Amino acid sequence: MTFVADFAEQLINGITLGMVYVLLAAGLSIIFGVMDVINFSHGELFALGAYFAISISSALGVGLGFWTALVVAPLLVGVVGVAIERFTVRPLYGRNPLYHILLTFGLVLIINDLIKLIWGTQQRNLGVPGYLSQPLGIAGIQVSLYNYFMIAFAGSLALGVYLFLNRTKYGMIVRAGSQDRQMVRNVGIDIDKYYTLVFGLGAALAAVGGIVLGGYQSVSTGMGNSVIIPAFIIVVLGGLGSFRGAVFGGLLVGIIRTMTRTYGGTEFGDIAGITLSLPDLEGLTIFLLMIAVLLIRPQGLFGDPEFQDGGGEEGDLLTGAGGGVFTESVRMKLGAAAIGLLAIVPFAILLTGNDYYIILLNRVLIMAIFALSLDIVMGYTGLVPLGHTMFYGVGAYAAALVMIHYTSSFIVALLGAIVICALIAWIVGSLSIRVSGVYFAMITLAFAELFYNAVFKFQFTGGSDGLLGWDPFFGIAGVGAELGDIELLIAGLEITPNVVFYYTTLILAVASLLFARRFMNAPFGSVLQSISEAEERAEFIGYDVTKYKRRAFVISGGIAGMAGGLLAVKPSTFIISPDQTLAWIHSGEVIVMTLLGGMGTLFGPMIGAGVFIGAEDILSSYTEQWRLVIGTIFVLFVLFVPRGLVSVPSLLVQRRQRTESDNTSVGLEDSEVNTND
Fold first, then answer.
1. Are 567 and 427 in contact (CB under 8 A)?
2. Cβ(130)–Cβ(211) under 8 Å?
3. How far is residue 412's CA from residue 398's CA, in Å, rounded to a whole number?
4. pTM of the prediction?
């Protein structure tokens, strides 16, 4: 095959993949443009469509089943989308749009585990009619007829949706509602019903994309996770809310991914003994492009979106700080008691002769530090970094590399992790803080994915295999001992390396909390809170808002790097890998912990980490679908307890006061009745 024919074939493959992205991103973009909702569960609705199609196709046979599934499965997923909007998204209208990100991340956990529960975890194949699988040769280009079907079908559907939204009465009402929701209500139209249908339409489009891709590739439980990040790249490139941008971005990303995967690293000649080859930029190009667009033109390549909510009010992120039932002195006493309890717990565990729960507590403390680091940014500046796991992952890699190549001292390794992550946070923060809101969330996600994909490219990071082969030294400059060799006998109790690491991590966790608390109680913290509440006002009275945000981001990144470094030092850690530390799902999990405990309190997210890890350990011993339970709890917290666990005591007191007030009112009414008698 000539290069031209091969290139043309890959171009067709890129357009084929791009049209799937068009369907996925078009639904995502419509939902955001009309409703101002960033739907992280969109990828799982994409996967759900493919699995519904498999069930229908299996029941009716490949021929009739495929065509029936192409119609029925999107309708079923559309109904699921309608239910999601009606019962979970709608109650959040009026709150900060970032709550939609938090809510839909919880839905990711729920839907993904439901798919595993119903269809299992093995890869499945969605059969397509035999005549669509036949190769078709045109001018020396051999491509399956199914490729052309995907391009034509997806293109026709996208065009139909565009005309529907722009040339019909329904579309006119939707676009009017996106501009001024209250105005549409004033003329007697129930705009909420239209929004529900828009969400259902977006979900159905995602399902169609899942079905056509399922017939092209295999269907797996991870397919939703694998497409949601490219989908966000597409809507950012084209413009959040822009339908035309989704079409352009989908095709662009599909072609770029196909071409970089095919030709990345290709050698094409030698000059003076030097081999010339194309750089292997698969997985990097699109994220670099996404970052560039967000920095230069945050509204996307197509400018202002077709559907832009200019009349909605954007609420604040609700923190757990303030309004508590405990005084400051009581809180200090409770904190001291909690630390004292954590200090004696290992001895009680050692009496059982099993240090499993000490290993579990080590993980809790590491994640508590990680959640604390996120709270500094999210709880005190109002910024939600969806890529916060980049600091955790880089910290783990930095510590491991220091111990492998420089010194095995865990002190030097942790210091190296903190410094490197603080430096990266300064660079990333300087760029990311130029944008805010969902754009800040998206650009931090892009940076995190850039680091995640870069790790696979370098030999010194171990590629996909990760790093292994180090023995932490508990000391410095030769004074100390190998952590794995420490064994002591105290009062008949065997002190293992895990116990030594536990107390070391407990001290660092307490120190990190006190350090962060000192900063947040100082004028620095007061300025951050002012910026979070009214950024323009803070800037007007003379504060350098960018500088304060960047400082908070650097502190946050350094503490997150320390958490990652502790993961590398932990005695039970034998390998550091990309999926273990840098996958975007970990950013979502630490956000769950932070909101679960109560952001804006510093100690709340640490409590949330303990609850999350504890719930995971308990539930996973009973069911493989533990994420389904945790996701459900998280969704309920977003809806009904957005200030987290730390707000529960005050909520209970308020409820009791309301009950007493109601009883008093009833008593007074009865008294008045008796007097009249």
1. no
2. no
3. 11
4. 0.89
For residue 3, give the H/E element and its range: helix 3-35
**Burial of residue 578, with CB atoms counted within 10 A of its CB: 0-12 exposed, 13-18 middle, 19 or more buried:** buried
Question: Per residue in 606-623, is it b (16+ CB within 10 Å) or e — as a string?
Answer: bbbbbbbbeebeebeeee
Say if CB 362 and CB 568 are below 8 A apart: no
Residue 581 near residue 396, CB atoms below 8 Å:
yes
The model's pLDDT over 226-277, given as tens digits with 9 standing for 90+, comes to 888 888 889 888 887 788 888 999 999 999 988 888 877 666 666 655 655 6
| Token couple for 182 | 């209250």
Q: What whole-number distance in Å separates Cα of residue 53 and Cα of residue 213?
A: 11
Shortest CA distance to 113 belongs to which of 263, 7, 225? 225
pLDDT at 46: 95
- Burial code (b: 16+ CB inside 10 Å, e: under 16) for 104-118 equals bbbbbbbbbbbbeee
Q: What percent of the chain has pLDDT over 90?
A: 39
Compute the distance between CA of residue 615 and CA of residue 633 in angstroms, rounded to an integer: 10
CA 65 to centroid of chain Cα atoms? 35
- Report the 10 Å Cβ neighbour count for 9: 17
Q: Which residues pair with 475 in a beta bridge?
A: 480
- CA-based nearest residue to 487, from 476, 474, 477, 478: 474
Closest CA to 606 of 616, 594, 589: 594
